[in-house]
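Per reviewer request, we include the raw input and output of the structure prediction for the construct analysed in the revised manuscript.
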Amino acid sequence: MKFAQQLNTAVHQPWANYYVDYKLLKKRLKDLQREHESHEVPPLSVRTPQPSHPAPSDRFTHKELQRAFFQAVENEVDKVEWFYMHRVHHARREMQELMERWFRLSRYAEFDEYPLSATDITHHVDQEKEIFSHFNADLSALLHHLQLLSGNYLAMCRMAIVKILKKHDKLEARHAGLACKEAVVRTIRADRRFWQADDLIRLLDEVKRFKWDVIKAHIRTGAER
């Protein structure tokens, strides 16, 4: 399966507009390819006398198309960075709200005085189970979205950037151009937080630990009653 198809299949639809626009980047690369082809020297058997072609670095149109390609790459990188930071900020705020909810639920369970009748006790326990079920569902949803951000969104966006830069270098290598993938990726890694995603890794660890603590506390509370 080609990467473009793989990307289309993997896209989480609610976030579709924020993935790297691989199709646009391929279009910019296609413009470069056509410009190169327009300056190719024909095979010897069909060659006619003609002036020598300038190197790609000396062609104005080539430089303009290169600039357009790298501007498109930068725009996509900026888009991914913005969305990554937005999602992490939103998730951290949601995590804080869940921790506050859990604190209130824990205090409620600790200080609640149970009614004496068996019917009331059963009803009360059922209520607690329902409350915990809703809370656990919200916590699980947060964890799922963070895992989706890490394992799907960021993984596919990084791959799209690397692949399009590889295609660019392969095209330029055939026409005496310059390779750039390593330098561009190195710059992105240094200047954009989404590439390393340290904030996300830490937050994922926090949410996993919190979820495990919640499950243990719920089991312990059930055993005590």
